Amino acid sequence: MASEDNMPHPVCLIENVKGQLRANQEALSILSSIQQPVVVVAIVGPYHTGKSYLMNKLAGKKTGFSLGSTVQAETKGIWMWCVPHPQKPEHTLVLLDTEGLGDVEKGDNQNDCWIFALAILLSSTFIYNSMGVINQQAMDQLQLCTDQKEKEKQFNLPRLCIRKFFPMKKCFIFERPAPGKKLGQLESLQNQDLDSDFVVQVAEFCSYVFRSSKVKRISGGLKVNGPRLKSLVTTYVNTISNGSLPCIESAVLTLAQIENSAAVQKAITHYDQQMSQRVQLPTETLQELLDLHRTCEKEAIKIFMENSFKNFNQTKLETNREEFCKKNLQASSDYCSALLQDLFSPLEEDVKQGTYFKPGGYCVFMRRIKELKKSYYEEPKKGVLAEETLQKFLQSKEDLADVILQTDQILREKAKEIEVERVKAESAQATAKIQEEIKNQSDQLMKEKEKFYMEQFEELTKKIEKKQAQLREEQQKGH
């Protein structure tokens, strides 16, 4: 969080470099570190009207913002000071002071218009400071920041725009703070040296700003923190640099893309970490894996919802789930294959020694196969491919079994015929069982998807209804 300790003075946020506006990287870095909601107060007005004095008062300092005649033309722009909010704990007050408008020595009218527009777009409270009445030029500049299709020149149009886009307004009138020569020494004067009415008016002004200024929000009611304000700054400045008009909707869309991308990555990272920690591959059943997936998936979606303001695209989680299913299948296959190799290695050694190539050898061979299958079934945590892997392994031994059987055929011809039929029946049963398991697993996945989509639909419906309610509430407050 930015505080008085790590930001003892203002820095330039948006500067004018050879006629082009650009965001200052130091200021953007400061915004990146502010995770608290921000209350953004910007002040705009003609030069030499006391804007910086008022902003220093809001910052609780006698000095800090010092623009006016002391600033070179190439640094004309917007200055920023981030301080703890004096009345809202865990909030940061972001003060934006603009270079005085209308100074022919430091810029042109187009530059003034963009500075004016940026101050409005970035702030949650906008202060227009003027000596005397607000003139037609000020009205035109206020209108510039609205989304009117034509920049008509009718006299009443700017006033209509102000009523529409600035529904809450407050006017303060300040006495002359000090006699003529002392005006240039305001920063060094004590309160007793100033006009007493002016001191009271400034205090009332600061109190009102602190009390009434809201947290900066964007479409949908999302609170803006430092990183989000940074995104708005860069989006608006880049838009202006490209020769286009800054648009709130496009800035929110850009922010949404940035925030949602980060939120998705955060959710996916959590999902992958939790699945890796909780799942011990291979799982005994597909349902065991799906149950763990559902738990981690809900946690990941919750994390996304807490860090975004758009709908969640579950495609990535589905892809990760499929990857875990593939890994689960591979782990089961690898483990079962290794287990079978270990269990059947003595049998293969006996085959090499010719143990089963004699009368009755085939029956002994098959009995040994049966014993080894029993040992295999008794081993735990073989996973979802336990049966399929076993059957593939046994199929690889069928040629060997045929050779042993042929050797035994002369003495046990009849036994061979019976045994062949039994082996075929067993193989068919195994194949049918595998197909049934595959179908069951597919059905489980389909039901899981349907359940997930229904839950997501209900959750997103609630979120949309909540946001609509927030929007209606904001609109009612605006009126």
TrEMBL record:
Pfam families: GBP (PF02263), GBP_C (PF02841). Gene3D superfamilies: Guanylate-binding protein, C-terminal domain, P-loop containing nucleotide triphosphate hydrolases. Keywords: Coiled coil, GTP-binding, Hydrolase, Immunity, Innate immunity, Nucleotide-binding. Residues 35-144 form the GB1/RHD3-type G domain. Residues 420-477 form a coiled coil. InterPro entries: G_GB1_RHD3_dom, GBP_C, Guanylate-bd/ATL_C, Guanylate-bd_C_sf, Guanylate-bd_N, P-loop_NTPase. It comes from the Eukaryota. SUPFAM superfamilies: Interferon-induced guanylate-binding protein 1 (GBP1), C-terminal domain, P-loop containing nucleoside triphosphate hydrolases. PROSITE patterns: G_GB1_RHD3. Belongs to the TRAFAC class dynamin-like GTPase superfamily. GB1/RHD3 GTPase family. PANTHER family: GUANYLATE BINDING PROTEIN. This is Guanylate-binding protein 5. It comes from Apodemus speciosus (Large Japanese field mouse). The lineage of its organism: Eukaryota, Metazoa, Chordata, Craniata, Vertebrata.
